[in-house]
Amino acid sequence: MEELEFLYPRQSVAISVMTVVELSHGVYRSTDLQVAARRQAFIDQLASRLEVIPVSLSLARLIGRIEGEQAAAGRVIDLADLIIGASALQRNDAVLTLNKKHFALIPNLQVLTPS
């Protein structure tokens, strides 16, 4: 998190509740109890230091609109990426990701990749 603050000074950083879902998946998938505990500690630290954006009714409607419009155009967006991207879009935020390809399918979403 310090790295994010250094790379993006004076910018607020938040995560989607979907990010917590994806990270939690890794906790319960691990067969190594020490690895699982480290992963859970990371999630707890992240959630305590950053705002966690919930899925509200207005966000659910935006997700449905984007998914419907893109599906009508023959484009399929992974639901997890759609939730994360729409969360940022609704707040006029950018998404910082190593997987720019998936988020590029969401119209008008600003996508950043770490340098």
CATH topology (fold) name = Rossmann fold
> Mind telling me the C-alpha Rg?
15 Å
Strand content: 5-15%
Task: Write down the CATH class.
Answer: Alpha Beta
Number of E strands: 4
DSSP summary: helix tally: 6
Q: Provide the spatial order of strands within the biggest beta sheet.
A: 1-2
Tell the overall outline: globular
Spell out the helices and strands N to C.
Answer: HEHHEHHEHE
Class computed from helices, strands and strand pairing: mainly alpha
Model regions low in confidence, pLDDT < 50 over at least 5 residues: none
Within CATH, the superfamily carries the name 5'-nuclease
Query: From the 3D coordinates, which CATH architecture would you assign?
Result: 3-Layer(aba) Sandwich
Helix content: 55-70%
Largest sheet: 2 strands, parallel
Provide the number of structural domains. Answer: 1
Mean pLDDT: 92
Give the distance, in angstroms, between the N- and C-terminal Cα atoms: 15 Å
